Amino acid sequence: MIRYFSACIVFLALFHVVCPPAGAESPMLEEIVIKGEKEAPNQESLTMKEVKESPARDIGEALKQVEGINIVHKGAIANDIVLRGFQKDNINVLTDGAKIYGACPARMDPPAFHFDFAEVEQIKIIKGPYDMENEGSLGGKVEIQSKKTRKGFGSDLNLTYGSYNAVNGSATASYGTDKYDGLLGFAYKRSDVPESGNGKLITDIYPSTSPNRYRPDTIDSKAYEIFTGWAKLGFNPTSNSRSSINYSYQDAEHVLYPYLKMDADYDKTHLLNWNYRIENVSPLLSELKLQLYWNRVTHLMNDSLRVSSATSSRGFSMQTDARTQGIGAKMQGTLAAGPGMLKGGIDYTNRNWDALNLRGMFTAVNPFTPVNMIPDVFVDNLGMFTEYDLPVSEQFNIIAGIRGDLTWVNAEKRNTLTAATDGTDFGGVSADLQFVYKPAKELELFLGLARGYRTPAPDELFIDVPAAAPMVTWRGNPGLRPTVNHEVDLGAKYFGERFYVNTTIFYSDLIDYVNFFQASNTLKSYQNIDARMWGAELGSQVALPFNLFLKGSLSYSEGTNKDANRPLSEIPPLKGMVALRYDNDTFFAEIAENMAREQDRIDTGLNEQPTAGWATTDLKAGIYYKGLSVYAGIYNLLDKQYYSYFSYLRDPFASGVGVKVPENGRNFYLTVAYKF
């Protein structure tokens, strides 16, 4: 399978040599030019046009088509992003520059889950610790950018129906003038429980003796139902300034997570974001930006849909009530400094996280004793950065940046861990040095050297889920030190009028990497280790004769726990994609083959199990006519039964030893979109 795929990638490069350019310009050709001219080799982007062509239910699922990105699949929705093997707090996920955090300690609601597709203009990805503007981008950054409001009246209507009675509908309306603009939007999505390739529901994965199995009346219940509404107002006081404020509210109900022992009763999210920008303030100050934001997530999960809930008159045997809040302020400016541009800024963030856990099995004497699972932790961070972009010549560019952060962590409630300490302080420095060389118009070479830094997260420090043996206790470690990533990236990008190829290799030396581990037979916790990660990505696209386009991608990451001399846990295997597309600007059709190798590099200390390789086939087609677009597709055409490497959880809330959540079997979708 991998040999076949590698041959296809080589074919992409050779075909450009033997096939002369032909045909008129098209959006697909423009995409080749944009990727070649606008993005550095360590950057990627995903537009909503690409998302609408897919059956993706959330941003995480949509991003898995980007080389270097995998997802943690917990159920029908709410997929968590994995970038080059980095996940959770090791990568930054932002919406219009605002940081948002999920409330669930088991990450039922990862950051990207709290934003609907219909709100999004595009998604930008920086691979590696090259984001100096934000604290904590240890492995990279994913930034979701909301829709822009254009002049005049505008509207965007979308309706998707697919397998498992999946419905995804949205409507936006906007109006803009030279002075002001506004936008309103609403989205609704729901789905029944998907089936895997063997024809069984993805909730039907537990043995008949497992208390974690779904009750007969809930195993085929609704998988999720989500309402989202948003508004955006903009005002242009002068020709060179703009002020805007965004508000979004999301209400997710009855979300099933067979990956875990509990499901979400609800997940409610408020996002408020204000931005001000003024350009060409003076010959020296070219831009000044101010930002204030606030967000809040409340989350309730329990096992009321599982057989385990039958043991209690409360309707559940375990429940967690969690909330999180984020507040942020930023000020940035860009100065003309000599031949280059000097950017600098200061920012402050406040994160609060509180989670109360109730369990009937806490002790036989005192069931349902309240446990401060996350003990109302406040994290304050003050950071400053500066970055200089120096064009040495028309062919050679240097970017150098440095960032410093001071962090204060305090717990307001008591649990096993905070009885000894209620907080700690951290401080650290991030820096990067990037060299971009263009020996020819079509060729760009990239060398990046960076130091990334992030403080331990509140759950890594203070999470406390005590349990009586032989059950496993899940407990944080207040003595954790910040993680430092020393990384080098080497990339090359070639693009012509009809051909594009981008490849990057990276190596990360990780000091005090926060690693989840089995401390004993009855305790799992976090420890600092020294580790290394390395990997590579390759993406290519070539325009062939007769409006045909050949695309391919390949990505690989490998991690090693140097202290234990064994593979690092939760690292994805080699994966790739090759696709052939016909596109004449009015009609397109595409066939794609997706592949992943077996993952046999496993962390035996966490009892990880090998995951078999797989290959699936997808078909899709679409028609564009003026403002109307129609898309249809069949994913997993051959109804393959397969599992992602991230198909089972490794901590005490795991669904059970050997219990994995399969990927969806054959599924279809039909989307109708109208824009004016």
Q: What share of the residues lie within helices?
A: under 10%
Which runs of at least 5 residues are low in confidence (pLDDT < 50)? 1-24
- Mean pLDDT metric: 90
Instruction: Profile the largest sheet.
Output: 22 strands, antiparallel, barrel
Radius of gyration computed on alpha carbons: 25 Å
What is the class in the CATH system? Mainly Beta
Classify the beta-strand content into a percent band.
over 45%
Give the CA-based shape: globular
Could you characterize what this model shows?
The protein has 676 residues and is mainly β. The protein has one domain: TonB-dependent receptor, beta-barrel domain (Maltoporin, Chain A). Helix content is 7%, strand content 54%. The protein is built from five helices and 33 strands. It has a 22-stranded antiparallel beta barrel. It has a five-stranded mixed β-sheet with strand order 1-7-8-5-6. A hairpin with a 3-residue loop joins strand 9 (152-162) and strand 10 (166-176). The longest helix is centred in the first third of the chain and has 17 residues, at 2-18. Mean pLDDT is 90; it is low at 1-24.
